[in-house]
Design brief:
This protein is mostly beta strands and 159 residues long. It has a domain of 84 residues: Beta Barrel (OB fold (Dihydrolipoamide Acetyltransferase, E2P)). The protein is 8% helix and 36% strand. It has 2 helices and 8 strands, in the order H-E-E-E-E-E-E-E-E-H. A 5-stranded antiparallel beta sheet has the order 6-5-4-7-8. The chain has a 3-stranded antiparallel beta sheet with strand order 2-1-3, with no helix packed on it. Strand 7 and strand 8 form a beta hairpin. 20% of the residues are buried. The chain binds zinc ion (ZN). Zinc ion binds next to loops.
Length: 159
């Protein structure tokens, strides 16, 4: 199966495989072979288990990047955020599918696999995770900043 087809058919698949300490339940990403949270690290040796992060999280801090690194010129300005995943580990990644001005601390995001960059004539494409606002997954792309319509008040029940 081609990579493009793989991701098209599995839009939520990404490689966020971390590890979890079976002793204290702390989750790590990238995975670790010993647990620094356990008082005695050796207790965790051999007890680190693979753990797949959900990719869901919340923006903790972010910056708007105006000077792009080579290969990212097309994407300026973009938002680079630190996201605290629901499982605990902090991830750094680009926030996409939202105007930079709309990103804020506390924004609920979800990891999504995207093309990171394409390299020169060889056309080597790198994929990795980026974060998209969680709203996108439920109600589609936001097209305006219009507030939600007010709910229609219900008629009081008559006896
Ligand atoms: Zn531990």
């Amino acid at each position: 199966m081609s990579i493009a087809r793989f991701w098209r058919e599995s839009p939520r698949r990404y490689n966020l495989g971390g590890s979890q300490c079976a002793v204290c339940s702390t989750v790590y990403f990238p995975p670790r072979s010993v647990c620094p949270s356990c008082a005695h690290h050796r207790h965790s040796i051999g007890k680190m288990e693979p753990f797949q992060l959900s990719g869901d999280g919340e923006v903790v801090t972010f910056s708007v990047i105006h000077d792009a690194a080579e290969g990212f010129e097309m994407q300026v300005p973009y938002v680079l955020a630190i996201v605290r995943t629901t499982e605990g580990p902090m991830l750094t990644g680009q926030v996409v599918d939202v105007a930079p001005g709309e990103v804020d601390i506390g924004l609920k995001v979800r990891a999504t696999f995207r093309k990171l960059r394409e390299e020169g004539r060889a056309g080597v494409i790198h994929y990795g995770y980026k974060f998209a606002p969680m709203d996108e997954w439920h109600v589609g792309p936001r097209r305006s900043k219009d507030p939600e319509p007010a709910p229609v008040p219900r008629e009081p029940a008559r006896a």
